[in-house]
Specification:
Elements lengths: L5 H11 L6 H13 L2 H17 L1 E2 L6 E2 L5 H4 L4 E8 L2 H10 L4 E5 L17 H10 L4 E4 L5 H13 L6 E4 L15 H9 L2 E2 L3
Helix pairs in contact: 1-2, 5-8
Length: 201
């Protein structure tokens, strides 16, 4: 795309660098902002800067948070003996939208993938083990994408926790093999959690 303004071109380039945003969509967004009141654009920019500079990660579960401990971990109505282990924060958002889960979470940050150079030491498995030992955890739900990497990660964690007094379950296979949790519809994902099955160690 050729533009008569370098500033416009740079703005389009910035928007199109976001996932799922192509050049045409980026152009529409930028032109929309130009047509809006300047204060609205400034307010949006200020909010993004504030988020980037001030957002934290929960010291317990590693979810995004405004405080040291996130709202989910701080919620007295949540079952603190039940941990749902997920790959990333997008998975928490997807599960929360189902309205079927009332425990707490643990974000691994990634999955074991030797081909990509990601080993057990590169994800938050030791932190999970510490929570199991110290926080009275009774059950761990492995809400991890059904894939080779996901199954490898579940197997490693189950062996790591072998001998601990904790039950391990996996989400039911309503989520297709290789399918990302964030793209599963709410009903399927919700049923997969409710119908979780015990993981045989």
């Amino acid at each position: 795309m050729q533009f008569s303004s370098i500033l416009l071109s740079e703005a389009v380039e910035s928007f199109s660098s976001l996932p799922g945003i192509g050049k045409k969509t980026a152009l529409r967004l930028v032109l929309h902002l130009l047509q809006e009141d300047a204060n609205m654009t400034k307010s949006m920019a200020d909010r993004l800067i504030k988020m980037r500079e001030n957002i934290k990660y929960c010291k317990q579960c590693f979810n995004i948070s405004d405080e040291d401990i996130c709202q989910i971990c701080n919620n007295s109505k949540r079952d603190k003996s039940l941990i749902c282990v997920v790959r990333n924060i997008k998975d928490i958002i997807a599960i929360e939208e189902t309205g079927h889960y009332f425990g707490v979470y643990h974000v691994l940050g990634n999955l074991i993938s030797p081909i990509d150079g990601i080993g057990p030491e590169d994800i938050r498995i030791n932190e999970l083990e510490t929570r199991v030992e110290n926080d009275g955890i009774k059950e761990i739900i492995m809400a991890i994408t059904p894939s080779i990497e996901g199954d490898t990660t579940i197997f490693y964690i189950s062996k790591k926790l072998n001998g601990k007094d904790v039950s391990i379950s996996t989400i039911a296979r309503g989520v297709s093999f290789g399918g990302e949790l964030e793209y599963a519809d709410e009903i399927t994902l919700g049923r997969s959690i409710v119908s979780r099955v015990k993981y045989e160690r």
